[in-house]
From TrEMBL, chain A:
Keywords: Cell membrane, Membrane, Transmembrane, Transmembrane helix
InterPro entries referenced in this protein's UniProt entry, alphabetically: ABC_transp_permease, LivM-like
GO cellular component term of the entry, any: plasma membrane
Protein name per Swiss-Prot or TrEMBL: Branched-chain amino acid ABC transporter permease
Any Pfam family matching the protein: BPD_transp_2
Automatic annotation (TrEMBL), chain B:
Alphabetically ordered keywords of this record: ATP-binding, Nucleotide-binding, Transport
Protein name (database record): ABC transporter ATP-binding protein
Domain ABC transporter, residue spans: 4-242
Gene Ontology cellular component terms for the protein in this record: plasma membrane
Keyword ATP-binding: yes
Protein source organism: Candidatus Desulfaltia bathyphila
A Pfam family recorded for this sequence: ABC_tran
GO function terms (MF aspect): ATP binding; ATP hydrolysis activity
UniProtKB/TrEMBL annotation, chain C:
Record-linked InterPro entries: ABC_transp_permease, BCAA_transport_permease
The protein's name: Branched-chain amino acid ABC transporter permease
UniProtKB keywords: Amino-acid transport, Cell membrane, Membrane, Transmembrane, Transmembrane helix, Transport
Presence of keyword Transmembrane helix: yes
Family to which this protein belongs: Belongs to the binding-protein-dependent transport system permease family. LivHM subfamily.
Upper taxonomic lineage: Bacteria, Pseudomonadati, Thermodesulfobacteriota, Desulfobacteria, Desulfobacterales
One matching Pfam family: BPD_transp_2
Annotated localization: Cell membrane
GO CC list: plasma membrane
GO biological process, one term: amino acid transport
Entry membrane topology: Multi-pass membrane protein
Source taxon at top rank: Bacteria
Chief site of localization: membrane
Length: 329, 248, 295
């Protein structure tokens, strides 16, 4: 069980966040935003943090998750007997769309390395967005608006509850799940294989590691978690989806900043990164509205150049061979 | 029954003939040195055996099984271990984790848990004398330590055949003697066939190998018992740099 | 009728293709020399567009004169970002340079937004046009095309006839070998990055000559992506390959638009954009190893 001690600080942080949001008036929106970044950071970390591949197209999964939820709810809301089941149908559709695209992408993109992989992923994201707009599927550029469907299915009060509380609550659950999966992978063969892939993929193959298999596992896991976050944080919460709003690469960049800030490939890193990023974004939106990116761009550059191991990477070095070390990875 | 059989292997890169009709048989537990100057095709041969490249022509038989088209990652569990000319540790992982990767995905793959692998790793780390560095990041080791770590990683794969790429290049003569003694011990204890590739450390060849295969410009020049091979005129020619046709 | 439309569009496609080619040469040059994919590529095109716009609408200076200004400013930006950021990342993992160039792109966009705002802008050069039986071509488009070809030729001669150009080619082939032969590789990296950025900013000028509207801080994204497709089509590390691939891409894009417009119920413009990415996908699918070649 000692192996899983590092989960303790992570889950404790989530619990404290939840309690603050739940009991202190006016804090819920902020902790929900923080949970969103923590969940995305951890989901993204499973693939990129562990393999070192840069997936600029990660937002594709979040977007498809949102679409899955939108389609699920808008097609099934008239069947009253389904009740809350329509949310689950939406989630299943979200996961289905994401795994479809993850498998297609991993078939093609995971055979590529480095720059080619990054280019291919951006290509898939933009290709999909313009295809939805161009071929006018799923409402084309007009998107899908399903708040009406929610109200029809659940009534106004329950719908409000769903969008204002339960959607965010689901994000908390996904964040906790992502943390568990992160540490489970790190402690199992998968984590060892992915570290080998990150450090020297060709040597890994000669050592007997089926690199494609392990990369696909990580890619799929990471994508499904991202889709689940999208389904709730964008889908249920906002009750609408437009291709121009969701297939936006800047969200991928936010994930990257969160993970790098905290420390790529660590468990606690994306959580700390999510908190720091989320809080500073929240604060900047108040003091410098509209200029968050202007502030973040140089920060990214500075982190990459002088501080590549991130906050937790740094703390890990400092706490090495102290009793704290067993709680921090 | 031969452990590994290479039949008429040919490999070209662009127009360049890297290997020309090379055949080789290796028995269980045999110690073979593949000798040849830079560019003789040794590394290509290793890459063909471990599955990094596919040959253009020829067959590779491992324990009577045709593995010519088998990808590298499937060969390792059959009993292949390999070290590299320039060590290729997984830098950010600790020495222990590096060696455990060998145990996890080598011939014991599927039979050992992560914890078992870490224990196996500890044994081999002790064997190569790196206990003190066990929890260090592999990237922080000295070059010689990295070579020893790779050796432990390859041995933790429990191979039947160990391919050692220039294992002794750049090493101090004292370290070489130690390495040779170490390899002989391993070979006797675990019955591993060792194919060691060397450019010109003839001293190590004599100390280690029972058989020597000399390569020159992609072809097999000589394949004989060590003492015979070292007195063979053609070998001397290659090493003294005289063009082969002068002797005719 | 449709054939006439197609032929007319293909002429525009060829002209635009020349500009695309120029817009990709910088990306290929930087990748060839430093093995860095400039993910912020489009932002430098945007900078070129704003240079042209400002010179023309504020100072009344012709876009033709904006070309040398763009080259100089681009090279200055290139040297600046090389010495502050890129120099430290040459030996770092690919992740680092991908993220750094992306962040540089965002930084440029945000700085331009800070100065000019996020509105869509445009200018009207009013040069006149050539009327052909099948289509009408504004003269500015022809200028952009000719300008692109002249610059591409300049680069070609610089590469093949000058000492410095030869040194750059040597570094592309084998940077270690070049170092041994006495080439100052660090300086070649800096210079190539600066020239690559200079070319890209210049192509931004050409693009506004071609499409003098829609200039805004975020216009670059779509060109980054098109440049990727073109660069991969042209072999990624070859600037000339990129130029010819640009011509092909321009033709396909404009041709496909006409054909998509015939399909009822679709939006032909985004569909054409998505085509570029299906092409990229397909290219990477059929030839991933060949493209991975450089080692």
């Amino acid at each position: 069980m000692v192996k899983y001690y590092p989960l303790i600080p992570v889950l404790a942080i989530y619990l404290v966040m939840f309690l603050i949001g739940f009991y202190i008036e006016g804090m819920w929106q902020m902790v929900a935003l923080l949970a969103f970044y923590c969940a995305l950071g951890q989901s993204w970390n499973i693939f990129m943090g562990m393999t070192g591949y840069v997936d600029f197209g990660y937002v594709t999964f979040i977007a498809l998750g949102t679409y899955g939820m939108a389609l699920g709810i808008s097609y099934t809301h008239q069947y009253e007997w389904l009740g809350i089941g329509i949310i689950f149908i939406g989630l299943i559709l979200a996961l289905f769309l994401a795994s479809l695209s993850a498998l297609l992408e991993s078939f093609i993109a995971l055979r590529l390395r480095g720059a080619y992989f990054a280019i291919a992923c951006i290509g898939i994201n933009e290709g999909l967005k313009h295809f939805i707009e161009g071929a006018r599927i799923w409402g084309g550029s007009d998107g899908i608006i399903f708040y009406g469907a929610l109200i029809q299915a659940f009534g106004r009060e329950t719908s409000n509850h769903l969008t204002a509380f339960w959607a965010d609550f689901a994000v908390f659950i996904i964040a906790a799940l992502a943390a568990i999966l992160n540490i489970y992978y790190m402690r199992s063969k998968i984590g060892y294989a992915l570290t080998a892939v990150r450090e020297d993929e060709d040597a890994a193959k000669v050592m007997g590691i089926n690199t494609t298999k392990y990369k696909t596992i990580a890619f799929l896991t990471s994508g499904l978690l991202g889709a689940a976050v999208g389904a709730f944080a964008w889908g249920v919460k906002l009750a609408h989806v437009y291709p121009g709003d969701v297939f936006v690469i800047h969200y991928t960049i936010e994930c990257i900043v969160v993970v790098l800030l905290g420390g790529a490939g660590t468990l606690l890193g994306p959580v700390v990164g999510g908190l720091v990023y989320g809080l500073s974004k929240y604060w900047l939106a108040v003091v410098l509205p509209g200029f968050q990116l202007l502030v973040f761009a140089p920060i990214i550059i500075i982190i990459i150049v002088v501080f590549p191991e991130g906050i937790i990477g740094f703390v890990k070095q400092k706490t090495k061979s102290t009793p704290l070390a067993r709680y921090i990875i | 029954m031969a452990l590994l059989k290479l039949e008429n292997i040919t490999k070209t890169f662009g127009g360049l003939m890297a290997l020309n009709d090379v055949s080789l048989e290796i028995e269980h537990g045999e110690l073979i040195a593949i000798v040849g100057p830079n560019g003789a095709g040794k590394t290509t041969l290793f890459n063909i055996i471990s599955g990094v490249y596919r040959p253009d022509k020829g067959k590779i038989i491992f324990e009577e099984r045709d593995i010519t088209r088998m990808p590298a990652y499937k060969r390792a569990p059959l009993g292949f271990g390999r070290t590299f000319q320039i060590p290729r540790p997984f830098n950010s992982a600790t020495v222990r984790e590096n060696v455990a990767v060998g145990a996890m995905f080598g011939s014991l793959a599927g039979k050992v848990s992560v914890d078992d692998s870490l224990e196996i790793a500890d044994r081999y780390i002790e064997l190569v004398g790196l206990e003190a560095h066990k929890d260090k990041e592999a990237g922080s080791l000295t070059p010689v330590e990295k070579k020893m770590m790779e050796m432990a990683r390859a041995l933790a794969m429990k191979p039947k055949l160990l391919l050692m790429d220039e294992a002794m290049a750049g090493m101090h003569p004292k370290d070489i003697d130690e390495m040779v003694r170490f390899l002989k011990k391993i070979k006797e204890k675990e019955n591993i066939a060792v194919v060691s590739m060397v450019e010109h450390v003839m001293r190590a060849v004599v100390g280690l190998a029972e058989r020597v295969m000399v390569m020159h410009q992609g072809s097999k020049l000589v394949d004989a018992k060590t003492e015979e091979a070292l007195t063979e005129p053609r070998v001397i020619e290659v090493y003294l740099g005289r063009p082969p046709d002068e002797s005719k | 009728m449709i054939l006439q439309l197609l032929a007319g569009n293909l002429i525009h496609g060829l002209l635009l293709g020349g500009v695309y080619g120029l817009a990709t040469m910088g990306l290929s040059l930087i990748f060839g020399v430093m093995n860095v994919v400039n993910v912020g590529h489009g932002a430098f095109i945007m900078v070129g567009a704003f240079i042209t716009l400002t010179l023309f609408s504020v100072l009344g200076i012709s876009p033709v004169l904006a070309i040398p200004v763009a080259l100089l400013m681009g090279m200055a930006l290139g040297f600046f970002f090389f010495y502050t950021v890129m120099r430290r990342l040459i030996k770092a993992p690919e992740l680092a340079s991908l993220l750094a160039t992306f962040a540089i792109g965002i930084l440029l966009e945000e700085v331009v937004k800070l100065i000019f705002g996020a509105d869509f802008r445009g200018y009207n050069w009013g040069l006149g046009k050539i009327v052909l039986p099948i289509t009408v071509i504004p003269l500015s488009k022809i200028y952009a095309f000719i300008g692109s070809i002249v610059i591409a030729l300049f680069l070609y001669f610089w590469f093949s006839k000058t000492r410095l150009g030869t040194a750059v080619r040597a570094v592309v082939e084998d940077s270690e070998g070049a170092r041994v032969c006495g080439v100052n590789v660090g300086w070649i990296y800096a210079l190539s990055f600066a020239i690559g950025i200079g070319l890209t900013v210049m192509s931004g000028v050409m693009l506004t000559m071609f499409i003098p509207v829609g200039i805004n801080p975020y216009m670059g994204g779509v060109y980054t992506l098109k440049a990727f497709v073109i660069a991969v089509l042209g072999g990624l590390s070859s600037p000339y390959g990129a130029f010819f691939a640009g011509l092909i891409f321009g033709l396909i894009e404009n041709g496909a638009y006409v054909l998509f417009a015939q399909i009822p119920g679709v939006a032909p413009f985004p569909l054409t954009v998505s085509l570029a990415f299906w092409m990229l996908f397909f290219l990477l699918l059929i030839k991933p190893t060949g493209l991975l070649g450089k080692k």
